[in-house]
Amino acid sequence: MNHSEIAAALLRTELGNITEELREALSNGWEVRSKVVSILASQGESVIPKMQKLLLSDIYPIRKLAYDTLSALQSVDQIQDFLLKQLSTNPEVKHRQVTVWMLREMGRRAKPCSAHLARLSLDKSEDILIKHEVLQALHRIDPESVPLECWAAALSSYSIKNFERLFWLANDYLVAAGELSLPILAELLEQEQPDVRVYAAGVLAKLSSAYPEARIILEQTKNDPCWYVRQAAAYGLGERTPERNNSEEAFEQVEISEADTMVIIHNGLIRLGINKETGIVNLFEAYGQDLLGPKGRIYYDTITPPGRAWWPKPDGYKIRRFDGNFGHVVFTKTATERQPFDINLNFVVERGSSGFYFYVTYCHNVDIPVRFVQARHVLRFDSDKLKYMAINDNRMGRMPSTEMVTAGEEVMDATFRLGDGSVYSKYNWQVFEGLHLLHGIMGENIGLWMMSASKEFYNGGPFKQNRTVHYDNVLLQIMQSGHFGAGGHWFPPKSGWRKIYGPHFIYVNQGENLAELWIDAKTRAYEEKEKWPYQWVNEELYPLKRTSVAGQIEITDGSSAADGWIILGDPDPHWQHQGKGYLFYTKTDADGRFTLQHVRPGTYTLWAYVPGVVGEFRLDSIEVRAAEAKDLGVLKWSPEKHGDLIWRIGVPDRTGAEFFIPGKDYRNWGMWFEYDENFPDGVVYTIGKSDYRTDWNYCQPITVLTENGPGDAKPWEIRFNLDHISPGKAYLTIGIAASTENVLAVTVNGQQVGIISRANDNATYRSSIRGIYSHHVFEFDTSLLVTGENLIGLTVTGDKGIQRGIIYDFLQLEIDHFTP
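Above: the chain sequence. Below: its structure as tokens.
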């Protein structure tokens, strides 16, 4: 269809009869839609009634085109008046729901409607779905107009079951309100529904370090009559001793049987059927329920470029252990030219356990070089049965339905603008592995979870980001990934490299509601951590005799060493790029003390990083022997300094999270569309006047989208005054948290002092605030500075794209022996 044909078809279209041909024609990008809008708008006011009808379509591209056409013919006030009339007079819930979607898409332009919407959110007689939709709309339109009690009402299983992000928003707003939230949360803990009490405890946990009253409330909640509410409160206080309902149930022994095509391991709680020829799990039942459905499967894949992911096709299998308490089946694969690793896939079922363990061993001994990029365990589940995603206490929500995806459009890989106008992306559900415990998918009274008792076999360290659960019914355990700049590993011919990945645990549980499923799974994850290293593993690559490495970081300039990360790994490459061997990491306490548990024997390098401190501490050649605790004592760290600090923008914490972020949540696709509205002149930052929390955008883009289309973004400027200049050296330090493949040119009063070239770590367009960290120091003579106002210019160049650019960590200027 050409543009005129699309316009004519729209004028003939009725809401309930939108053809696939028209949908497809409108999915060809904003340029097509803008030309169709021009054709429709040229017909004048005669098209307004039809566009008003289409404005209430539940198909996003239709609704967006109708809005753009009306915007060319009417004022924003006229469009708002029409929508508010529909919301007030039409009794049909679906009709009113779409009306709220449209107001939400208008964003801040719909602010005159916020008072009306806020009243709806407080109206006890209003439909619960509409009230929750209004909350999401007000988040975009005027978040200050929403009373805290409305956000508290969204701390519910209803929110999780009906919305992808509303539960997130409720958590974030209540945490941001701080002390004001405490009495509201205390009231929630008096409610009858135990799931609401669990969710309230989750928010209090986030507030407990800053507000002693939150800890008092959690202590009181440990007396709750419901076991999983008590457990949630204990976890919120940092207590890790799980509580369980003791059971005298006698569990069946583990059995292994063989069918024509499968090896079946079962223990009365689960049945696991593994295809003999492929090593793929085609049968997974728990508590009598099929968890995979007709199209589901569980498989393990690897990426070794060139080429796409491949499944290790086994040469055969053997039963390694079968004694009633354990059933262990291993599938072996010998290296080939296309699959250049010897690989063993291990499936282990334990008596009395509603799940199974899985681990993989690799060996590279063939005369073929290989680049090893990705290794992951993939579980494709029955999405009719399992619909609700969870990655931590505060991040749970509904997986998008096929209907919502079909009514929208794909905007990036695995990223969809849904029928309601919101954007779902699998990257929104990523986690940083350092503090991540478990993730899973829940249904009505049943949950399916992936958990690792240790992260020692993962690549990339504590800031490594991995996907977890996403649309297309996928649950993932990613142990090696090149995403976010971590890169792959190169092995020359016959390298002799060997490694074990795992074991990790796939757990199935039952519960009376989503909150019990979550707390029970979290409890099981902590129990698994206590078992590490698993004593039943009998592998040369998995030493059972391990030890601890302890010490204390002391920063010589008096800075606190609290909340830092300690990383133990190989001496090179930098730990962000490691993965051939094993990495151990933990956090420091309030005094800078740390203990790394269950460290394998070997020789290591230790790194320390502390938020607020520039650079890293490093200590090489640490010998660790089995069963011999290693105490490193006090490690004195003198951070790099180049002179007197004149000013600093941001915090050296390896993220851009402290800067201005639209909506205050970086796990959102498309924030770059708002850049020109928020910073029409680019960033012009004046030291002493500007505030980096509001005046420094989280990302400096290469391209900006304006009303006239994409164009080059303006350079950023830092302006600062000096009342005198002394001969000597100045040092500009720039920490970069993430970037696409681009070049940053840095000038001081028009003179270039340096260039930074960075590779692409994907973070700017994959819903993140950090990728691969680097910091750069530019030394220049103070003769480049002047008395009075000085200007530092920052210009980003590279491949064009509104989603491309640089995320800064911090910037600071130091001058030798500068005295005020």
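The domain at 547-637 is CATH 2.60.40.1120 (Immunoglobulin-like).
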